[in-house]
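R.M. (postdoc): so does anyone remember the format we settled on? I'll just put the structure tokens first.
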């Protein structure tokens, strides 16, 4: 847990890293890995989403560490927040790079990340097509949103029924 957080935090001395991890046990593991690697990172307990409020968070397989937001308040209750609101309120700085693995909520998060996307140089996404559809979206809509924000994307890796996108500002 936190591999990319630790890599980003060690990339340069002047890097500011913010990680979002709403699942308590995953967040604890993330804190431990950050400390073990001597990385300065802010770990926030909210889940990024298209709305600010409360939602359910549940795991499809016990013990796998993969949690997804639920629309029906199933599972543990977690706070959700719109990414743009955190930047607009100066709670976090405008990121230059975003790495996202939100178990199917990719499109939901990007819908409220318009301002951030305008300033992001690189975006790395783990895409879960079937889960995006469960949330009422599509990968076509996801990829169009990335393109419309001025980024050129390509698939860099596939694993099972998910794939990884790298999007760079044009």
């Amino acid at each position: 847990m936190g591999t990319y957080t630790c890599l980003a935090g060690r990339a340069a001395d002047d890097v500011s890293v913010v990680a979002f991890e709403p699942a308590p046990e995953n967040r604890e593991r993330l804190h431990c890995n950050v400390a073990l690697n001597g990385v300065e990172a802010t770990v926030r307990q909210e889940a990024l989403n298209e709305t600010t409020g409360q939602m359910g968070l549940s795991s499809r397989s016990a013990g796998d560490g993969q949690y997804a937001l639920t629309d029906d308040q199933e599972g543990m209750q977690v706070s959700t927040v719109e990414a743009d609101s955190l930047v607009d309120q100066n709670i976090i700085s405008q990121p230059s790079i975003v790495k996202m693995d939100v178990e199917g909520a990719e499109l939901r998060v990007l819908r409220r990340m318009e301002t951030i996307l305008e300033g992001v140089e690189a975006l790395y996404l783990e895409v879960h097509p079937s889960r995006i559809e469960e949330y009422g979206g599509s990968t076509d809509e996801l990829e169009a949103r990335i393109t419309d924000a001025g980024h050129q994307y390509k698939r860099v890796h596939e694993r099972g029924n998910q794939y990884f996108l790298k999007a760079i500002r044009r």
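R.M.: ...and that's the designed sequence above, right after the tokens. Also worth knowing: The chain is about 35% helix and 30% strand. Residues 24-36 form the longest helix (13 residues).
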